[in-house]
Amino acid sequence: MGTGLWILIVIVALLAGAAIGFFAARKYMESYLKSNPPISEDQLSAMMQQMGQKPSQKKLRQMMNSMKNRS
What we know:
The chain is an all-alpha fold. It has three helices and no strands.
């Protein structure tokens, strides 16, 4: 086999590996963020208290649902 063919095979393998790696990492991160959300109700409650609001359970659930629906 010629040198040009080997170079072509290496380039195609690198591109395929990069594409597969990208999609695998994306799927892993989506499932990770779904099971471990970046903010919890306790954190949201603390944030609202720091802003001077008194968080009710209804308001916390509304905000959590709106954040889940956005993603």
